[in-house]
């Protein structure tokens, strides 16, 4: 474990509870937190100087590599593993979505202006919104994480707690529809360079 932040997502949760102007519903909040998780993984990889590869697609560069994958997919406390653990604690009989297929789809579509996650939105169209939120929550993140490697953990734990809230009010079936969108948004947003 990087550092003990298991009890600290509540300060970040409180911030989001108070920002009703940002979110018209908790489903949007979950999707946004997915995007912020992806961005936090990239930022941690950059700050910790982990291996990165810049890939040009269209007119932009995108962030790939082992350093990003460590925070996004591979470490014990990666975004994927935190969300998968939450999912399996709620749905012990249900298979977690196929992350490999999502990652292939994201890699194939970076830079594609017509690409839409869940057929609904292009993450590049709302990326500037994530940057605004990131700037708003920087103090909370720094107060709760002494090192950049804790950033994606904190935001992933916050997302995991909001998943519990969502399921309590809207049920497991609705969440099963939302989860692939949350995951794919995180995976794609982790690639976008500000």
Describe the structure.
This protein is mainly alpha-helical and 194 residues long. The chain has one domain. Helix content is 64%, strand content 5%. It is built from eight helices and two strands, in the order ααββαααααα. It has helices at 9-18, 26-47, 66-74, 79-90, 99-109, 123-144, 151-170, 172-189; strands at residues 53-57, 60-64. A two-stranded antiparallel ribbon has the order 1-2. Helix 1 packs across helix 6 (123-144) and helix 2 crosses helix 3 (66-74). The longest helix has 22 residues, at 26-47. It is globular, with a radius of gyration of 15 Å. Mean pLDDT is 90; it is low at 1-7.
Largest sheet, order of strands side by side? 1-2
How do the SSEs run, as a string of H and E?
HHEEHHHHHH
State which percent range the strand residues make up: 5-15%
Q: Any idea what the shape is?
A: globular
Number of helices: 8
Structural class: mainly alpha
> Which spans have pLDDT < 50 for at least 5 consecutive residues?
1-7
Please report the distance between the alpha carbons of the first and last residues: 29 Å
Q: Care to count the β-strands?
A: 2
């Amino acid at each position: 474990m990087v550092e003990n932040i298991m009890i600290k997502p509540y300060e970040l949760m409180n911030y989001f509870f108070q920002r009703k102007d940002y979110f018209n519903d908790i489903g949007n909040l979950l999707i946004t937190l997915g995007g912020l998780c992806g961005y936090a993984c990239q930022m941690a990889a950059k700050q910790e100087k982990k291996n990165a590869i810049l890939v040009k697609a269209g007119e932009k560069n995108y962030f790939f590599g082992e350093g990003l994958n460590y925070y996004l997919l591979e470490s014990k406390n990666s975004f994927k593993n935190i969300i998968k653990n939450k999912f399996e604690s709620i749905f012990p009989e249900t298979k977690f979505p196929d992350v490999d297929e999502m990652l292939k789809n994201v890699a194939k579509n970076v830079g594609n202006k017509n690409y839409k996650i869940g057929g609904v939105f292009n993450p590049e169209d709302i990326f500037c919104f994530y940057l605004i939120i990131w700037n708003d929550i920087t103090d909370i993140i720094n107060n709760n994480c002494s090192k950049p490697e804790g950033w994606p953990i904190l935001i992933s734990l916050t997302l995991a707690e909001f998943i519990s809230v969502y399921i309590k009010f809207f049920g497991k079936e609705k969440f099963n529809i939302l989860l692939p969108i949350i995951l794919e948004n995180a995976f794609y947003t982790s690639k976008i360079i500000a």
